Input
Amino acid sequence: VSPDFRNLENNILSLDFGYFQRLAGEVRPFFAEGRGFFNTGYDANTFASQRVRQFDAGVRVFGNADDRTKFGFMALQDTGDQSVIVSSVTRTPTPRTTFQLSHVRSSEKDSSNDAVRFFAQQGQGAFNYWTNVQGSKDSKKGAGARWDFGASQDLPTGSIYMSVANVERDYYPRLGNQFETDYQGLNVGTWRFSRPKKGPVFETNWNINGNYYWRKNGLPYRREANGNANLTLRSGWAAGINASTSRFEQFDDRLVGAYLSYPNNDPVWGVSVDVTKGDLSGKNYRSAGASFSYRPSPKLQASASVQWVSHFERGRQAILTGSYDLGNNVFVSARAVQFDNDQSAYFSLRKSGATGNDYYLIFGDPNARRFTRSIAFKAVFPLNIKL
Output
C-alpha cells in the first residue's frame, strides 16, 4: 500500500543510440519478485512494468498450480488516475511443449486498453517450432494485432533459425514495449561455437543474422545484416569483433566494433574495454567504454564504468558503485554518477534481509540527475495474515 521506491538504485541506460525508446531494467521489488511467473512476451511484451511510475495500492499473486502449470496475477490502483490488471498462465504438458496465455488491462479516466497474448512452442527431434499471437483493443486507437512464427534447428555446434513477423498499424498495447508497427518481414540467422579439448583456445563462437521488413503497403521499411565473432582463451583473455550494415527508412548505417576483457568470468575482478565506430542515422558515430569490477572479499565489492560517445553531440557518462557488508544484515552502499557536467551521489546504511523488518538511512537521492541535499529514514515492517 502506497509503496515508496525512492531508496532503490534504478538501472542507468547507456549512451548508445537507438531509433526507438529504450527502457531501463526493472529493480523495484514489487515487480521484480516472481517475474518468471508473468509471461507477456519476449522482444515485445504486452506489459512493461517500467511504464507504471507509481501506484497507491497493489496486490501480486503468483505460484504453481501444479508441477506443469504456473500462474501470475497482479492488480494496481493509482487512485483517480489509473488501474491495471495483469494475468498470465503457462502450461507445460510435456518437457518440449509450452503454452502461454496472458491479458493486460489498463483503465484511465476517459480511456481503456486491453492486450492479449497467446504463445505455443513444440520441440520435435532437433527442431523447435513456435507461434506468437498478440492483439490489442484501445478505446481511442481501435483494434490491432501482431503475429509471429518461427523455427530453429539444433546442431551439434550451434543452431540455425528463422522467423516471420506481421504487425498491424493499429496494434497498441499501451503498457507494453512494442515500438514498431505497420510492418512485416522475416529474420534468419545461425549461431556456431567450438570448444577445443586442448590448446590455448577455450571457446570460439560466431553469429550471422539478417532481416528484411517492409511496410504493409509494400514500401521498404528496414533491412539489416550483422555478424560477430568471439574468442576466449584458457588464460582468461576474451575478445570479439562485430559489424553491421543496415538501412532504416532513409538512413544507411554502418557500424564496426570490438571488445577486449580479462579475466573472463572471474568472480574477484575483471576489466573490459570496447570501441565502436561508423555512420548512424546520417551522422558519424564514435563510442568508447571501459569497465572495472573488484571484489577482494565476500563483504566488499566495487565497480566503475565510463562511456564516451560522439554522435549528434558529445557525451560522457561515468558510474562508480560500492557496497560493504558490516555483518548482522547491515550494509553500506554508495553510488556516484557523472553525466556530462552533472554530478550526483548518494550514500546509504541499511539493515535488511533478516526477519523482514528493514531500515534505511539515505543521504542524497539515488536517482537524481544532480546531487540533492537530503536525508531520509525509511522503515518497512511486514504484516502476516493467517487465513
